[in-house]
Amino acid sequence: MGAPAERREGRQKVTGAARYAAEYAVPGRAHAWPVPAAVASGRVTGVDTSAALALPGVLAVLTPGDAPRLAEAEDATLAVLQDPAVPHRGWCVALVVAETPETARAAARAVRVHYDSRPHDVNLSEGHRDAYAPEEAGGQPGTLEHGDPEAAFAAADIRVDVAYRVPPLHNHPMEPHASTAHWDGDRLTVYTSSQGGTAVRSVLAKLFELPEEQITVVAEHVGGGFGSKGTPRPDVVLAALAARHTGRPVTLACHRRHLPTVTGHRAPTRQRIRLGTDADGRLTALLHEVTTYTSRVKEFVEYAAVVSRTMYATPALRSAHRVVPLDVPSPSWMRAPGEAPGMYALESALDELADALGMDPVELRVRNEPDREPGSGKPFSSRNLVRCLREGARRFNWADRDPRPGVRREGPLLLGTGVAAATYPVMVSPSSAAVEALPDGTFTVRVNAADIGTGARTVLAQIAADALGVPLDRVRCEVGHSELPPAPLAGGSSGTASWGWAVHEACTRLAAHPGPLPPDGLTVRADTTGRADADSPYARHAFGAHFAEVAVDTVTGEVRVRRMLGVFAAGRILNARTARSQFTGAMVMGLGMALTEGSTLDPAFGDFPETDLAGYHVPAHADVPAIEADWIDEDDPHLNPMGSKGIGEIGIVGTAAALGNAVHHATGIRFRELPLTPDRVL
Ligand code: MOS
To answer: Which residues belong to any copy of the Aldehyde oxidase/xanthine dehydrogenase a/b hammerhead domain (predicted)?
Structure first.
């Protein structure tokens, strides 16, 4: 375990042999194309399908009036074509099914939808009259307060009172959401692009009122998700509805332009941070107040203030959210929901505080290390933030840094460096797994895990080989099929810990089997409960430190990244190669958040204009410089049998703050709204 084993499906992927959800050409299959609502609020009063149906090759147009009925959906974004109400622009108001995707697309344009539209509101503001304090944010209380933060802040020797803004951000996985569905009588099979096939099956079972045994869900290869495939999305429901309605297998491959409105996004945040300290830079008050929006369909709170409950020692804390329901597409999980925008604001404010105190920003963080988690009062199972900061500072030659802003010139360029901390909670869910010992001395591990490009198969085989005490090449691993033992999603950086725990348990039991194995082999299955966060006597989090160097062009306003270094403490690293890829991949996503990514809600139409990768700018290779991720050895006995913390999300946490702090160090100007595009910086 820990070896840099190569991804097992790598060759299949680069040769095109790996099949994705839209590539299951089930005989006789048809293709579906949604018709997105053209208004942001109101109801559908009629759908004229005649021109669409007249096109050769069109099989059907499903509308809210005639689509098959679904049972009530727990996730209201899945109640598609059930109701004429339009909660936001882009909501699916009709679905065309045709012989080819091209025909379906053309026919979707020919569908005429009539609306009774109402005025809409997509404008987020702190003082919005509908703003309310949510009960919950990210499974935690929406507001947490101790001490008397307002009074403590007012009495502080040094005060920083700043506000940061993060725009809407979009997941945009390389493989857009796609599903292929077919019915065989009352048996439903779907091939879908999902971070968790077990949940897809149970949700479809409820919606279509079928026993789970009559549903098969296959998600063998998944081209990324970043949270947007963490729960079933409308594509799988629509494909199943269309297949039932037409009696044909149906593929719905979402066009990238549909993703921003129907698959979830990171809601924008307005964050006010107040930090008060004594003259030595010890925090006496920390107030982190977040305003964000949710849709009319369901409540999702981007829980950006939660990080302030974990990071720094303070006798007075206020961590609070307010949310405004608007006529916007439903936000949802995007890589490190809460932590990514929250740590951008908190770690930028820490940098402002270091300036105000005339203190080195690494030393300021070290000085405010807590002995217990401030929010919960629990001891940390392990917390090696200081070691990450020290090790990163050493490797980045931080000691040689001139703290003065705006003084390093290289022709028209201004140069600067910045630092920020990272954190992400340790989560784990119940899972099951089975291992079969075969007569030829090899083993097959089975678990309905999702490999979303992270290398899940590979690391699970490593965990199994380790527990069995056999070489890695004797272990096969099957994932991504609902006939396999049920397992939780690849999300919350919890997949490997959850599935791996069950795999470890099954393999340990098999290894302990007394005497020779039966000649036809032996299968051992394990069901693990994990250990819910709330039950642990420990606060369990991964930590990290980011260091960044930028060059800011004073002529064009362009920010170029020169170097990025992330040092993480995330328990035991189970595969050095795929772990490094997770860390650096997330750091690149943080680079995008800092410099290029962001969308706007157009107040006239109530929708995002930036719907494709020409309008929504993810970093290209040329934007990504020398980027390095490494980790320190951490031995934490309070986690799981592998001793691992999650690594999928922490890399994006803090990256944008490190880059923003470097831009300040370069220019002497503090920008407080992302992304730092040339028009803002100039
Ligand atoms: Mo992650 S946003 O939990 O897939």
So the answer is: 15-119
Q: Please tell me the distance between residue 491's alpha carbon and the centre of ligand 1 in angstroms.
A: 4
Domain 136-169+265-426+537-681 falls in which CATH fold? Answer: Aldehyde Oxidoreductase; domain 4 (3.30.365)
Identical topology for domains 136-169+265-426+537-681 and 430-528: yes
Q: In 3D, which of 302, 335, 7 has the Cα closest to residue 173? A: 335
Residues counted in the chain: 682
Ligand 1 centre to CA of 493 (Å) is: 7
Q: What is the CATH number of domain 430-528?
A: 3.30.365.10
Structural domain spans, the chain: 13-119+177-253, 136-169+265-426+537-681, 430-528
Q: In the annotation, is 649 catalytic?
A: yes
Residue 513's pLDDT band, with cuts at 50, 70 and 90, is: very high
The rounded mean pLDDT for the chain is: 97
* From 260-269, 355-364, 510-519, 582-591, the region with the lowest mean pLDDT: 510-519
Does any ligand 1 atom lie closer than 6 A to the CB of residue 350?
Answer: no
Amino acid at 609: P
Mutation test residue for ligand 1: of 335, 451, 647, 653, the one with most atoms within 8 Å of CB = 335
Q: pLDDT digits over 269-279, tens only? A: 999 999 999 99
227 pocket-lining for ligand 1 (C-beta < 6 Å): yes
Q: How many whole angstroms separate alpha carbon 113 and alpha carbon 106?
A: 15
Closest alpha carbon to 476 in 526, 525, 435, 516: 435
C-alpha to C-alpha distance for 460 and 466, rounded to whole angstroms: 10
Check: pTM over 0.90? Answer yes or no.
yes
Cα(118) to ligand 1 centroid in Å equals 34
Please report which helix (H) or strand (E) contains residue 568, including its range: strand 559-569
Atom number of ligand 1 nearest to Cα 336: 2
CB 546 within 8 A of CB 587: yes
What is the average pLDDT across 459-473?
98
Q: Identify the CATH number of the domain defined by range 13-119+177-253.
A: 3.30.365.10
Q: Which candidate in 220, 391, 610, 649 is catalytic?
A: 649
**For ligand 1, mutation pick of 333, 451, 650 (most atoms within 8 Å of CB):** 333
- Can you tell me which atom of ligand 1 is nearest the CA of 452? 4
Q: What is the DSSP letter of 209?
A: T
Please state, as a whole number, how many other Cβ atoms lie within 10 Å of the Cβ of residue 538. Answer: 19
Q: Residues 82-130: pLDDT tens digits?
A: 999 999 999 999 999 999 999 999 999 999 999 999 999 999 999 999 9
